[in-house]
């Protein structure tokens, strides 16, 4: 159902691998109707096509336009990055190739024919493939089974074409009186003696800009003419053309299930990914390859459909995360316009997190080195090993060991475990090592194993740890995170049952409102004026002790649903007094605590604040709120905002994935111009370099990687061949500063690749006989 590339390719493969099969394609449009212009396919996708059907691959290869460069035009300056490797062709050409292949194989193509409902087809056919697009009627009819979620986004865009071939993939930014507009363009037909070629041109802008510019009131022809005038320099004064094009709002489609009985979703019916990473046709073709392969490999249809979804779902989810990051970057484009020109270009190129600093260095070392030089990296210095200053504290590199609760204290006193744990990370090379959340009172602990800083004995134990770090790991800063558990306290150790109340020995809990965290949690007491004053004093007393211990930095924990965090979220703060209601009112008590701590914390030493930038729950803190919260703390003297998310309410639905929290830090940094610490599934030094060089964060905090490898930063330096002042190996470990050999890697490489003729794929190269 649906004669787009995914449906046609699935039909051709099914027929090729089973000539006896009866395969029918219903397509409601005419054979040459299409509503796009060019299609971009990756080398990976093309490799799959080549192996599955060399005939189709050969036909496509003859039509490809290939290019390596990406041009980014911003404020009249063009920056070019090479080595990217694209292949594109016209959508009509692609469809014509697939039509011909289907006809040659005997597929029944029924154009200008609406498909019968999937339920009706399912009774007559063994398999129904619903490749009926983003507005899939099949998906809608059986929504109770497929469980679709369709999310509209904030930009309008229109597909157009120019009758000449760009010489690169081109992004151009237009800053108009109505707002920012952007062009995405790429060639899909090469210039020849017969003609100038052709390019796809997509014009995109935020909804409010689209309306302010009057596009909502223009007819299609006027819109096309207006777009051509906006980008007249890029087009060389040439016109744009349309093919029944209209302004669209991109929608991300996700389904809980992809199959229902013998009906299966494919391509945009199952999932969509934003066009800015060129993925729609690619995903649909890869779906077709996987589906047909599973039908060949599995013993029956249910097993095949299960295997298809199991194989494709993680690939699609990864692509959708990358596409969402790219989409979000373009939605937030105004935030980056004032970045230095080459940093802006680097930021755009790495927006989806699929192209990284190291990857871009391989593609175009000269461009990457120029961006590094503009950023201030000395020669041979990765961005992560450049220094960063907060007040009088200069961090020698941008790596932070994130706060991680160890639940291993006795009566709040950190012991030998903490000395070894934090001491090892200090020796490991990070610029800043943070303690776990150090509780400001016994009743402010999360568990009986939580460390505190409310007694002199605890302070003495912390002094021992700080002295070790400063003496044995000179150049490493040690930071303390102060917090109060609030309604999430009096629970078991994490490995005994996270967030579960203690079976005995519970202590009373306090919170902004008398709301338990979970169904089995204690109900806290809502703090009154005396209680608020007492908590404030507990924080200031702990801060005084922290200063005496010699900590270099203090962080106020206002995240993850603990006491100060629960004042900030409307889901946990239901107060009707001056400390509840509006965001300003909900900020009042956390700011009072911050001010009290800042007053007693030495002026030369920096203070940061950790926040949850979203609750990942309806009605909770939003990204807009997070910007306002960051601004408020910065106005009160916070030197940086440590941007985490969630853990405020148990029903949250976070969008997990690599670096998934960094967009919140990115927005805060570039909208408020306050330094930020990015956290959340940052796991590689390549990611750290990428985020810092793109200007999305100032520091990167890593937790689990430092549990896996206490010397993560030292090893990152060794793996990058860096031995400068941004990191220092302890003299005792210096002999291990080179990566150990892991086995022989210099053996002779194979010169010939021979395949048995009987086992070779059709069209594959055969072994040549000796002369």
Mean model confidence by pLDDT = 93
- β-strand percent reads 15-25%
CA-CA gap between termini: 52 Å
Say what the CATH topology of the largest domain is.
FAD/NAD(P)-binding domain
Q: Which structural category do the helix and sheet elements fall into?
A: alpha/beta
The biggest sheet amounts to: 8 strands, mixed
Helical segment count: 26
In total, the number of strands is 28
| Uncertain runs | 751-771
CATH homologous superfamily of the largest domain - what is it?
A: FAD/NAD(P)-binding domain
Q: What oligomeric state best describes the polypeptide chains here?
A: single chain
Cα radius of gyration in angstroms: 29 Å
* Shape assignment: globular
- Number of structural domains: 2
* CATH class group of the largest domain: Alpha Beta
Domain NADH:flavin oxidoreductase/NADH oxidase N-terminal: 384-717
Region (Disordered): 733-771
Domain FAD-binding: 2-320
Protein name: Salicylyl-CoA 5-hydroxylase
Element layout with pairings:
Layout lengths: L4 H13 L6 E4 L10 E4 L1 H10 L1 H8 L3 E3 L2 E5 L2 E5 L4 E5 H15 L2 E4 L6 H7 L3 E3 L6 H5 L1 H4 L1 E15 L6 E8 L2 E11 L8 E9 H6 L7 H11 L1 H4 L4 E2 L6 E8 L3 E2 L2 E3 L14 H18 L3 H31 L9 H9 L7 H7 L1 H11 L12 E3 L2 E3 L3 E3 L14 H12 L4 E8 L16 H17 L4 E7 L10 H4 L12 E2 L13 E2 L2 H21 L3 E6 L4 H6 L14 H18 L6 E6 L10 H13 L4 E5 L17 H11 L3 E3 L6 H9 L5 E4 L1 H5 L3 H8 L52
Parallel strand pairs: 1-7, 4-10, 8-16, 19-20, 19-28, 20-21, 21-24, 22-23, 24-25, 25-26, 26-27, 27-28
Antiparallel strand pairs: 2-6, 3-6, 4-5, 9-12, 9-13, 9-14, 10-11, 11-12, 15-16, 17-18
Helix pairs in contact: 1-4, 1-11, 2-3, 2-11, 3-4, 11-12, 14-15, 16-17, 17-19, 19-21, 21-22, 22-23
InterPro entries: Aldolase_TIM, FAD-bd, FAD/NAD-bd_sf, OxRdtase_FMN_N, YqjM-like
Organism: Streptomyces silvensis
Protein name: Salicylyl-CoA 5-hydroxylase
């Amino acid at each position: 159902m649906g004669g787009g590339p995914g449906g046609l390719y699935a039909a051709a493969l099914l027929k090729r691998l089973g000539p006896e099969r009866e395969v029918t394609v219903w397509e409601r449009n005419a054979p040459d109707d299409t509503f796009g212009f060019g299609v971009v396919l990756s080398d990976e996708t093309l490799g799959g096509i080549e192996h599955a059907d060399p005939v189709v691959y050969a036909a496509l290869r003859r039509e490809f336009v290939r290019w390596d460069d990406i041009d980014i035009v911003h404020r009249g300056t063009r920056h070019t990055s090479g080595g990217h490797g694209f292949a594109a062709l016209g959508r009509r050409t692609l469809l014509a190739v697939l039509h011909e292949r289907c006809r040659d194989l005997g597929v029944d193509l029924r154009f200008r024919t609406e498909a019968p409902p999937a339920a009706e087809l399912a009774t007559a056919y063994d398999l129904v493939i619903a490749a009926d697009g983003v507005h899939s009627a099949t998906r809608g009819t059986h929504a109770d089974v497929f469980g679709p979620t369709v999310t509209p986004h904030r930009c309008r865009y229109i597909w157009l074409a120019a009758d000449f071939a760009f010489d690169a993939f081109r992004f151009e930014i237009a800053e108009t009186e109505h707002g920012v507009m952007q062009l995405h363009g790429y060639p899909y037909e090469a210039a020849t003696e017969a003609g100038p070629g052709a390019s796809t041109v997509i014009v995109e802008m935020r909804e409010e800009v689209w309306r302010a510019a009057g596009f909502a009131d223009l007819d299609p022809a006027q819109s096309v003419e207006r777009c051509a005038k906006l980008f007249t320099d890029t087009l060389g004064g040439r016109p744009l053309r349309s093919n029944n094009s209209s302004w669209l709002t991109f929608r991300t489609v996700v389904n809980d299930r992809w199959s229902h009985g013998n009906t299966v979703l494919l391509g945009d019916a199952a999932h969509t990914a934003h066009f800015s990473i060129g993925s729609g046709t690619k995903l649909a073709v890869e779906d077709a390859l996987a589906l047909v392969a599973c039908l060949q490999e599995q013993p029956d249809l249910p097993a095949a459909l299960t295997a298809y979804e199991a194989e494709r779902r993680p690939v699609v989810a990864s692509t959708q995360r990358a596409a969402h990051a790219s989409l979000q970057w373009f939605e937030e484009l105004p935030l980056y316009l004032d970045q230095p020109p080459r940093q802006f270009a680097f930021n755009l190129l790495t927006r989806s997190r699929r192209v990284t600093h190291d990857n871009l260095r391989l593609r175009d070392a000269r461009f990457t080195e120029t961006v590094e030089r503009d950023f201030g990296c000395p020669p041979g210095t990765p961005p992560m090993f450049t220094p960063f200053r907060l007040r009088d504290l200069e961090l020698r590199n941008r790596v932070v060991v994130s706060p991680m609760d160890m639940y291993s204290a006795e009566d709040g006193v950190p012991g030998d475990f903490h000395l070894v744990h934090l001491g090892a990370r200090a020796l490991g090379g990070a610029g800043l090592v943070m303690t776990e959340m150090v509780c400001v009172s016994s009743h402010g602990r999360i568990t009986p194993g939580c460390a505190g800083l409310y007694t002199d004995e605890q302070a003495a134990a912390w002094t021992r740890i700080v002295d070790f770090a400063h003496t044995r790991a000179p150049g490493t800063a040690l930071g303390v995170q102060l917090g109060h558990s609030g309604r999430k306290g009096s629970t078991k150790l994490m490995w005994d049952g996270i967030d579960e109340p203690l079976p005995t020995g519970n202590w009373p809990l306090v919170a902004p409102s008398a709301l338990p965290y979970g169904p089995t949690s204690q109900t806290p007491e809502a703090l009154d004026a005396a209680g608020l004053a007492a908590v404030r004093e507990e924080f200031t007393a702990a801060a005084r002790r922290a200063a005496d211990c010699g900590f270099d930095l203090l962080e106020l924990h206002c995240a993850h649903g603990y006491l100060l965090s629960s004042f900030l979220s409307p889901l946990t703060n239901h107060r009707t007094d001056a400390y509840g209601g509006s965001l300003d009112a909900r900020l009042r008590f956390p700011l009072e605590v911050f001010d009290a701590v800042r007053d007693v914390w030495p002026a030369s030493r920096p203070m940061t604040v950790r926040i949850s930038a979203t609750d990942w729950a309806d009605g909770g803190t939003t990204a807009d709120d997070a910007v306002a919260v960051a601004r408020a703390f910065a106005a009160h003297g916070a030197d940086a905002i440590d941007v985490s998310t969630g853990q405020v309410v148990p029903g949250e639905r976070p969008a997990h994935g690599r670096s998934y929290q960094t967009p919140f830090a990115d927005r805060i940094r570039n909208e408020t111009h306050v330094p930020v610490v990015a956290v959340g599934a940052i796991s590689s030094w390549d990611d750290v370099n990428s985020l810092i060089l793109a200007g999305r964060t100032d520091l990167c905090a890593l937790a689990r990687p430092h549990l896996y490898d206490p010397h993560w930063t030292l090893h990152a330096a060794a793996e990058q061949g860096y031995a400068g002042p941004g990191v220092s190996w302890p003299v005792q470990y210096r002999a291990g500063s080179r990566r150990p050999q892991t086995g022989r890697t210099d053996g002779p490489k194979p010169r010939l690749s021979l395949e048995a003729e009987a086992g070779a794929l059709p069209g594959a190269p055969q072994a040549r006989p000796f002369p």
